[in-house]
Amino acid sequence: DDVENIYSAETQERIGEEYFARAQESRSELLRYDAQRRRRLDNVSSPFLYTTLRWVSRDYGRARRQYLVAVLAAFVAGTLLLCRGAGLSWPASLFLAAALLTWFRGFEADLRVGNVNSLQLLAVGIIAALERRASAATHFAAAFLGGVLLLFKPNFLWAAVLVLAARAVAGQWRRLATELAGGSAGAVAAFMI
Hints:
76% of the residues lie in helices and 0% in strands. It has 193 residues and is mostly helical.
């Protein structure tokens, strides 16, 4: 309740030290280890990103397992959606997903640091699947998810700008309007949440 700005350096230092002190009293070796590695709260993401993670347990070990399972499932599902969208067969798609899980160090790094790239991959896979359907409703839905994704992780902005620019260059004004409306609605919904 005494936090005015969760993004201020002083607040992040103080809360990090409070969490470190709590971790030292914990029976969880993993919590103590992780708290020692990062003694400063490192809030660099959008508030909507943190809001979407409220479903995880308040128990550190359980929350970490829940998140790792979600990241793994998102990576596999996102990869399969993109593979199938590119026209790969099921066996080729499954082989590629297995190879990426085995040898792609970016995924391993995401698991280690708790990043959200796999969650973004899943959202992009869903957007791509929706885009393959040729209706205004699915284009609106894909853009809505894109707007949500933009507030989830603002580094998605470049992709949104690129898609909108492509629509303008191609003269697809009706689709551009539909996607602007869907993206705006998604961003507003995410902001409200």
